[in-house]
Amino acid sequence: MVILSFLWWSVSVYVPLYANRTTRENYQVIVYGATPAGIMAAIAAKRSNVSVLLIEPGAYIGGVIAGGLGRTDIAGPQFIGGLCRDFLNEVASHVPRERQSPGRPWDLEPKVAMEVFKTWITREKIPLRTGMPLKSVSKKNRQITSLTFENGA
Prior knowledge:
By secondary structure, the chain is of the alpha/beta class. Helices cover about 30% and strands about 30% of the residues. A hairpin with a 2-residue loop joins strand 7 and strand 8. The termini are close together.
């Protein structure tokens, strides 16, 4: 079991290393859910010079984009910016032009999207914990004081 204790602006995390052994880690931001939005939030926080932990309740990261939904519904590139645009451009750069949909360079191959997500998390040095479903939340006066996770491994 992992217990996160929120102390002022930082978070203390007890992470299982092996059976019956834990280590304490401190983070200013914890992002729960390694979906595309969660990954981008963790990257944005890390680039803002705060310590970040990315936790995914399941075994896989990347949400539906890395899980098989590769056709995007983007009206046009003028509507996309920031990390999302960077991500889509990097994924597109891994797909040969002849395999890209005409007029739709941002349609994704899920395995490529997954690799780009993994590369970005590694490059930004964001600790990632997978297989950690949330068990309970403790609050005091409407403020979260701790989160408890089940060790899904």
